[in-house]
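Help! Submission page says 'invalid entity' but I think these are all valid:
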Amino acid sequence: MRGSFTSVRRLLLASVACVLGAAALTFAVDPLQLFRPSRLIAPFYSDDTRMQNAGLIRSQSFDTAFIGTSLAIHFRQSDIDRALGVRSLKLAMTGSNSRQQSFVLEQAIDRGARRVIWAMDDFSFVDAAGIEADPYLSVDLYRRTAKGIAAYLFNAAMAKESVFALLRSIPPLREPLTRAAPFLPVKFALFDVDDIYALPRDFDVARAYNAETTRAAFAYITDPVRSSFLGEGYGYDAMVRHFERDAVGLITRHPDVTFDIYFPPYSILQFVAMRDASPATLKIVTDLTALIAQRLTRLPNVRLHDFRAIKAVTHDLNNYGDVIHHSPVIDAMVLKWLASGEYRVDPNKPTASLEELKAQVEAYRVRQP
Amino acid sequence: MLFNSYPFILLFLPAVLAGYFWLGRRGNRAPVIWLAAASLAFYAIGSWQFVALLLASIAFNYGIGYLLIAAELAPMQRRAALAVGVAGDLLVLGIFKYAGFAADNLNALLGTHVAVHILLPVGISFYTFTQIAFLVDAFRGQVAAYALPHYALFVTYFPHLIAGPILHHKDMIPQFEQEESKHPHAHLILCGIIIFAIGLFKKTCLADGIQPLVALAFDARSPSFDQAWLGALAYTFQLYFDFSGYSDMAIGISLMFGIFLPVNFSSPYKATSIVEFWRRWHMTLSQFLRDYLYIPLGGNRRGRALRYVNLMITMLLGGLWHGAAWTFVVWGALHGAYLCINHAFNALVPAIPSPLARPVRILGAVLTFLAVVVAWVFFRAERVDWALRITSAMADPLNIVLGREEIAALVQVTIYAALVWLAPNTQAIMGYDHGSRRVGESLREGRLRPLVLYGASLVLAFGILGIQSHSEFIYFRF
């Protein structure tokens, strides 16, 4: 044996102490508000919605859960509350699949949601990893299992966030750090829960959402090099299975919860792209949504709204940033339509709006540059 | 198995160290066999289906090496044995790494639809190159007869097996033969842990920390000028911290066993020319390509024009070594062109007046860094046209977003740039000298000992806390 191992032992013990200290700090500060709502120091929020939702569900007070993909991500909770007279919690996650949405909604319902507003995209039913093995959404964090809590506490990023939260709670630093936080590489940078993924109040809507960008996106996705991606992951049988499991399963397990489900108003170019570049995908989409409409309108606790055939919106390409993502102006309209029930699907004619959409797609002619 | 995983840090490494030193009390060969077996187990845990291929490769090369070293062959027979050995290695590498690429290109040319789906064995590029060097040196008469366990350990030695550094038998096998390294050496173990901690921190906190920003350029359909630059810079720093972190961990782990591995990085982004960059980046690969490809091709001995041709061939093959895709060919071609320009400049402007030396060095560093960043875009992109989309955006300063996300990214990239340009590298911090087998002499003197110890414990703690999920090293796929 060469030399003494005292230094090695000291180094390892000091490391263990640092690890435990960091975990204790994260537990005390709890930046995600997983254990308790933040009271001693001001709460901050993150745009990392798959993680943030686990804390929101436990720390916020709400009666309505709002979910969807990127189509629903820019809504503000305050706007939803005002339009629908509810106390909402926005849980939308960009690129989320039906399995993730169903799981998160289940957690929200267990924590008190009595109404669900669900922006239902057909593509959310494509094949995806099982929720227990989902690498992007930690079920253990939501369920607060030992594994989930350990991963949260023994976490360098969370320790860093905790230190930043502490610094931000020191009075002389509070103002400058709160202002600077959104521009710093910190996760919990948003002061107001309403700002999670919302566009800034002074956002230049016309620059981001206009016919030029929409047409460019259409040209991009219909380019023969990429058009095969249009139908990527689409398979009718699997999508129906996922719909039954994730949507119908959840709805029927919670008969006391009201579900307002809507098909978002994509631009007409979304369907035209499929018509021209991948007709088989268009068939899957129309068949699937026909089945969804028939199934959902039969469930007593569901109100289904179909906004896809509202020509005044979907044919005006200035409303879009690409072929599906609509502007915040349309967000406001969606809330208005939900409140009025204007486009609610008639259970006696569940596919009427779909037939109207099909006719529009058939008739649409793409303007040549 | 990953170095940056709890099972490796808490179970595998302590168990292998304990077994190695316990057997070291009983003899000099048993620890070598133990370490070779542990290395195979390390490989098998992640890639069990390729263990047989690895063993066959070892047996094949050891056999050819035996013919070249011990059997008394005529010169023609020796040449034939070398040809068989190198061709065999390249054939296996070609089948497993390049068959799919070749088929895709033939399909594109001939309009056929031949599908080739072969999984890439982890580490095949590294252990193939290591063994080709062994065969060439055996042919040159520069290799002593090695025992099979030592040779097998030289190839499989787990700290380097998957992603290097590319080892040289003359450096490693004598160390495996030493009796002294079989006994625990407190100072080497301490230094090994500290170097491992630095590497772990680089990987889990720095490389994985900046990884999300890479999407700004590489996952965007049409990135803006700032997004393209921020994404490309993020990848530039991610790759450096990822690979140099891996190399540090390999060096640190090996040091705990009393074995010194060669240094693989020496602050490459501080280079003031492309020639210097390649002396600082992935140094063991550069040395390999120089000794076993560039110099055998003729190097700079046959005139300036042929030197440039040799440089281009070396870098094109170096690019292809990284992966079977046109993006790597373009990356290699870019670096080949950079090197040719650099050498041509040196030939045309042999001496810089001393008052201009410093500004020229700064300009050289800036140009070198920018050239390297542009080349990394091709290295990272999935397709050449996607890379061109990003480079086009990088050349269009009128299209700027600079929103909240971009400003936060800019702050993070600036912090990383400061680390890369201002902080000393691991071997400078630790006084690691592979050649003279010395490390941590200032630590031994004791003046800074408590500060270094507690600093290192913090780095180790954050390195461990940074382990979140399965995060592979970028170079595993090469």
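Support: the input was valid. A stray whitespace character was the problem, and the output above is from the cleaned input. The mean pLDDT of chain B is 92.
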